[in-house]
Design goal:
Blueprint: E1 2-10, H1 15-27, E2 29-35, E3 46-48, H2 56-74, E4 79-83, H3 88-97, E5 102-106, H4 119-131, E6 137-140, H5 143-152, E7 160-161, H6 174-183, H7 185-188, E8 193-197, H8 207-217, E9 221-226, H9 231-240, E10 248-252, H10 256-264, E11 268-271, H11 278-281, H12 287-292, E12 298-300, H13 304-313, E13 316-318, H14 322-331, H15 333-346, H16 349-364
Parallel strand pairs: 1-2, 1-4, 2-3, 4-5, 5-6, 6-7, 8-9, 8-11, 9-10, 11-12, 12-13
Length: about 375
Amino acid sequence: MKVLLISNSIIEYDGRLRELVKIAKGIGDTYYISRALSLEENEKSHYVFSSLGKFNYIRFIKYCLHIAKNIDQKTPIDILFVDNRKAILPAILIKNKIKIKYIIYDSRELYLLKESRSISNFIGCVLENLFIHNFNVIICANSQRSKIMKDIYNLKKNPLVFENLRKLNFSNRIENMQNYEKKYKKIFNNNTFIVTVTDGFSQKRGTDKLIEAIKNLGKKYSLVIAGKTTAQDMNKLKKMLELNEDNIHVVGILAEQELNYIINKSNVGFASYPMDTYNNIYCASGKIYEFIFEGLPIITSKNPPLVEICNKYKIGIATENYITAIMEISNNYQYYKNNVLNMQKIVSVENNNNKLIDQIKKELHI
């Protein structure tokens, strides 16, 4: 079987996309289109869309059509693998031009039409509503979303579940380690209990409350904030740090290996989501697995999927009281650490991938 995977995501920043490529390769001979930081293809089967500008999405659609036609001329494409909503339109247009046997659709987000807050989100929801019944296999990110999607879209069966299990890659190159150790010496050489956030500062996600918790706990505790922060949130963050809190460290957006180093040197990972939309309420956090696979217990908000994983494996605390949670985990650290290590023996990225490959093959009878 020949597979063409289409994505509008930047592959270096997108752990789920990297795993989807592995899934596609497990199904058949795979070619894939994505955006990338490098303008050069990583491999011959990877086509990098690099155009920027006002009509970027239109160019993306044309690029996908062009690549699909060229590939199909050599050997017919059997399967289109559609990564999220921005890939729906080019996939449908390709199907109208080329005889495609099957379309697999990964609905990685749970955005609903009634919750749309922007024109682009509204258009994406309309496309998903219009074409979701055209797909032979539908995938989502957790069991809660699967049940909701079946009801909302009146599907014949529940979408397949592909959880956001992912690991960060890390190089053991000595020069990298030496650079990181020098750069972060002040953070990690002061014997504090370190909580790390990897999705930036966000009032909406409760990072401000976490900062207040760290301030109240005192100098034996530290907070590292990595990741992207909006301009509005950055203004709020600066006001919160006007007193030059030396146990709160903002390191910004980091490359994958450097982020891995930060997590590996920390004690606890923090992930929080608001309870404002279906997509957030029933969150499918890949970040918690990045923490777990580095051996870190977690503190999370009380979203149902996060409560479920904390309760099932005892690897952290889902709460709104961050002071109590940090103290509980720091006082009983080895207990939570051991539970994380036990979870690593049960849950694996490879098994997660292989399970989905088998399910897709069964669904398509291939």
